[in-house]
Every structure is written in C-alpha cells, then in structure tokens.
Amino acid sequence: MSSKTYRIAALAGDGIGPEVMREALNVLRAIGTRFSLSFEITEAPVGWAGIDAAGKALPDATLELCRNSDSILFGSVGLPDRDPTIPKDQRPERAALLRIRKEFGLFANLRPVQLPKALAHACPLRPERQGDGIDILVVRELTGGMYFGQPKKTEDLGNGQQRAIDTMVYTTPEIERIAHVGFKAARLRRKKLTSIDKANVLENGVLWREVVTRVGKEYPDVALEHMFVDNGAMQLMLRPTQFDVVLCENMFGDILSDEAAALAGSLGMLPSASLGATSAEQTFGFYEPAGGTAPDIAGKDLANPIAQILSVALMLRYSFGLNAAADAVDAAVGKAIAQGLRTGDIHSATDAAARRVGTREMGAAIVAAI
Ligand code: IPM
Ligand code: MG
Q1: Residue 122 has pLDDT above 60, yes or no
Q2: How far is the CA of 198 from the centre of ligand 2 (A)?
C-alpha cells in the first residue's frame, strides 16, 4: 500500500445529494481496495442539512474540515421550498457553495461533456447532428464576473419601486489564469479552443477577447477562435461536434454548460471539477455534479448517481494524479451503461436492450465493475 492517505471531505448536502453521494463513496472505497489506496473520508453537513444541524449553511466545523482536507467531494445544496424562508445571503447557494468557491480560490471549473454512443437516443439532437460523438470540455471561470462583482444589491427607490444591481467585473490576471487553464486543457485534447464572449456589447467582452488572444500566442499549437455567446448557444445545438474546449466567463459558462449537458443526454451525467492554484504535487479541488438537488425525485431511488461518481474520477485525476484509478471509474461507468442499465433520466422505452434501474442498482453495478 502506498503510504499516503488522501483526506476527503464528503459534503452530501440536500435533495438527492445524500443518495448519490452514498453510491459515489461506495465507488471510492472499491477503488481504494482495488488499487491499495488509503482514503480517509469524513462526512459533514452543508446546505439545509448544515442549517438543520448547526444553524448555518456552511457550519464552522464543516469549513474547518474542508481546510484540513486534500479535496472536497460535494453533493448539491438548496431547496426551493425552504430557501425563500431565510435572507438571501444565508441561503445554501450563496452561503455554502459560492462561499466555498471564493474561500478556496477555486477559479477554474471544468465540465466535461461526453455523449457515449450507447446513449445517442438520450441526446435531443437528430443522429446526423451528433456526428462521431460529442466530446466537449467547458472551462468556466468561477470566482469572478457577475456572481461576485460589487455593488450587488437591491435598493428601494422610495416610490414603491426597487432597483436591482449586479456588476460584471474582470481584471486582466483573472482572465489570464483561466485562459491558461483552457489552453493547457486543449493541448491534452484536440487542440482547439473556442473562447466565448459578448465583445460586441460588453466592456468585459472586449477585455476578455484581448487577453485570451494574447495568452493564446503562448500556445501556437492550439487553434483559437472567438464566438459571441448568443452564437455559441446556437452553434452548440446546430453543430456540437465543432467544439473541443469552450472557454467562458462565469455566467456564460453556467448557462452553456447546462446546454452542453443536455446534449450529453442528461444533467445527471455531468461531473465537474473546481480547481485553484496548483502545487507541484497535488491540487486542492472541489468536485460536484453540475445538476442540482432535484427535490422532486429526492429519496425515491430515482436519481442518476453517475455525475457524482464521475466527479470521484475527476478528483482522483486532478487532485491526486491517480490516473489509473480514475480510468477504472470511467471504465466502470461505461460498462454499466454498456450492460444496458439506465436510470430514468437516460432511459428510453424504445431502446430494447436497456433496463430501467434505480440509484442503488446503478451504483452497485458500477462498484461491481471495479
Ligand atoms: C452550477 C449551479 C450554481 C451556479 C448555482 C447552484 C449557484 O447552477 O454550479 O452551475 O450558478 O454556479
Ligand atoms: Mg448551473
């Protein structure tokens, strides 16, 4: 056994979080056994689970655990029924998720979108538009732009009307560092980077385009193209196979990554990695499915655990450099799909080879394949 122990904070959160996390941790333990790796997994409450347990969406003890961990495996937070009952700045999305992103400087969000051939039917596009398959990496800036820019407030105008203000701000270094992440990722893939902006209208877009172009000069082997965000949204639907790495500021990346996920069959298939500054040996990272808490199906054994399980694979790869272990997780997911197992979100009644299963059975099949 390698002497290193990897310390992982597992924050399941709300809605479907706990049940998909349970399956992901089973997968992680199976990987530990197969590859003789030592994982120290500590679970802690966050989101409404944090509010109920300790009065805060991000309890102090949970934050402390994150600080003492090598990486965070996160579920999802927020419950639309309960969120409006407390002030905006205490709600799980802002007080836990956005706070952790900012607190740990997790500026780079990677969302790999792949449509496996076996799931072609789950893609909303006609087969001829799917080409040889869809394989896109959305690189989203995560700690800047309109999510965090100040001022951010709603003010009373005194005449019974209100005014809401959000501010979009980017500095040169913020754009440079995310651009480097995008170009480096493209180098490991098909060497094409599409940078998304709204340079025809926004000052932010003009600066974004200038800085990305300048950084691109350091990567002459990567083909760089620029696209306005509205056109990008359209091109994703019309010809998704033209994209390799898609580089976006925070909000455009939020929107386009959901659109791209729909191409891959379901949001329940989309994992994500949020990374900060890298050290030579290992990178602190935050790993979460890109979908939400899905309260309508929570606790019913209906949720697709694959996004959470693929987030484990991203953690093994990006934070710990355990590429063989990460490959084993990806392959096990591929095997369960090849066996015809489908949760409701990726199931099609017309696919005779497919069998509809629940969260537990999908998780167990993936564990068995490891
Ligand atoms: C995402 C989510 C979050 C975001 C929400 C839950 C705050 O949509 O990770 O894409 O907007 O970043
Ligand atoms: Mg989103």
Answers
A1: yes
A2: 19
